[in-house]
Amino acid sequence: MSATRYAYLGPEGTFTEVALRTLPEAATRELVPMVSVPAALDAVRSGAAAAALVPIENSVEGGINATLDELTSGEPLMIYREVLLSISFALLVRPGTELSDIKSVTAHPAAQPQVRNWMAAHLPDAVWESAASNADGARLVQEGHYDAAFAGEFAAATYGLVPLVTEIHDAENAQTRFVLVGRLARPAAPTGADKTSVAIWMGEDRPGALLELLQEFAVRGVNLMLIQSRPTGAGIGNYCFAVDAEGHIADRRVGEALMGLKRICPKVRFLGSYPRAGVDPRDVPPLRTGTSDAEFTEASDWLARNLDGRG
User: Fold this and answer.
1) pTM, to two decimals
2) pLDDT at 100 (0 to 100)
């Protein structure tokens, strides 16, 4: 395995590259752009890269399906950490292009919901075509395939383009969440401000089946931060659920919730426990009464005393 190589969704000039460069260790790694999310994660699976940074969620459209599907299928991988990046787009064009000249635009599919209203107001007749990434869209504009691309303003110089319009976003304070993914390993120690990601396959499809899954978290006081269904490919109505929960697998409330899911679900895949980006443990609200590790231990000791006849 190449311990000095990190893969990311490329080519050069993507928001993913910018997010990756915010990690301190990126300064000492060889950063390798890949053509797609599957290619970046397969580089980790094959040992060509020690880890890969890929987008997993944005605050406008929700989960990034390509990443969620890759993490829930194939050889298991694990999330080591997350990065949050504020997102604002620029309309990149070849020098001399005016707004009235633009008949076709391109970008990654996840960008479209974030610029849809702006495009309807300013480029109502332009045709949208999806690209493998925003930076790849800029490359396609450079090569003359499209008139403009929505990408980060920082990508303009890399591809010989100019930002015709900047600060484009339909939603203020839009963010994208990225995850650093590696091979299976022991999770880092809890920090007090952690997140646990799992994929859950539901068994029998019947009334209340999803509620049963959610109750495993609810009765233990585990807050869910994301739940998204994804088709399994086994036919209409067959889904798995990608779930982000507050807490660490080493926390008793989280560990017992996962054990509960394992008992009632045909398959549960642990995707990692890692620090929540931008959250100071000192700012995390107190746990609900009855859900701390100490209270779980006290209840377990009480049960043991009664089993031993000690009351």
Assistant:
1) 0.88
2) 94
